[in-house]
């Protein structure tokens, strides 16, 4: 079968769902690959490299007519209307928030697989685009902070005097938070971190940071996501965050609750306690943000001189490698569904990874999936 890779139509999207390397891997599984001209240009993958890898470079119409289309995100109907009935579409689609998209695929007989709905079980880790993008984004959050922070990260003892290291505080030590911790630590900062889940303390410490626990912490939920806090936990956490934020030069917030608006963890009062020149990177900005003063997508500077970065495209600011990792997640999906390496995907609905990410198939709506049983 032919896999089409479109140029992402969303304004500012630098990423592409396949790179020359992943094209070759898809071909090794028996697929033909058709890449839209210019699809990889913003990620430093020119058309010629795709052709060298064995792909056909074509126009948008040809790509959208392929048996299978793999993309970063789900575009509007102007693009999706080009898909053939019976085609397969694979991308991030936030099916929990976009029921209209699920209904569209169902009505148009398109088999749709959501890369952002891969079940959170060990076996599915190699397909998990949320993790791969959060990892790159966490690294980039620190680079963005360092870029606007007008000071050194590392402490220095020089003939002209001592320079103290920067203090970095990371709220939420999941994939993104741990990547931010590791990056800040490697740049010489003193790093602290808090997470609702006390069991991440060991991972935080292994990345070189001090774990600062919430006095009334919660238990881990069965699916690996933090549970929503009780009122007591929320009060204790807010007091702790306000105190820690006031002492930090750089704050990175990563607390997402799937399918919900991000909780406010850094209040205007906490920001007011920060020193001029301090920086907050709000990695939850896409869902509203963890800081009360975040403006999603923007850089704002408060009256007391604190810069708040609400960028929602952190992984897209490292497009070559973010595309490579996303493309490898796609290859790993095709490895799972192409056991005979014959370019013919077989969607086994008894496989909970495949079932979990399939939102529509042959005109049948399959979202939401049944709960995952294996961890
Ligand atoms: P996430 O984006 O849902 O949340 C980020 C972090 O913020 C989490 O650690 C969460 O506990 C924390 N958080 C949420 N609300 C908070 C609050 N109010 N205060 C402080 N912290 C808060 O999570 P994620 O980074 O995608 O992953 C979370 C966990 O799941 C990790 O342990 C990760 O290793 C695991 N995971 C497993 C798989 C898999 O097995 N396939 C895949 C992805 C992630």
Please outline the helices and strands.
Elements lengths: L1 E4 L14 H9 L3 E5 L10 H7 L2 E3 L1 H5 L3 E6 L3 H4 L7 E5 L6 H9 L3 E4 L14 H20 L7 E3 L2 E3 L3 E5 L3 H12 L3 E5 L6 H6 L3 E2 L19 H17 L2 E4 L14 H5 L6 E4 L16 E3 L5 E3 L9 H19 L14 H6 E4 L2 E2 L10
Parallel strand pairs: 1-2, 1-4, 2-3, 4-5, 5-6, 9-10, 9-12, 10-11, 12-13, 13-15
Antiparallel strand pairs: 6-16, 7-8, 14-15, 16-17
Helix pairs in contact: 1-2, 1-11, 6-7, 6-11
**Low confidence ranges:** none
The biggest sheet, with number of strands, parallel, antiparallel or mixed sense and barrel status, is: 8 strands, mixed
Mean pLDDT: 95
Order of helical and strand elements: EHEHEHEHEHEHEEEHEHEHEHEEEHHEE
Find the count of extended strands (DSSP E, 2+ residues): 17
Helix content: 25-40%
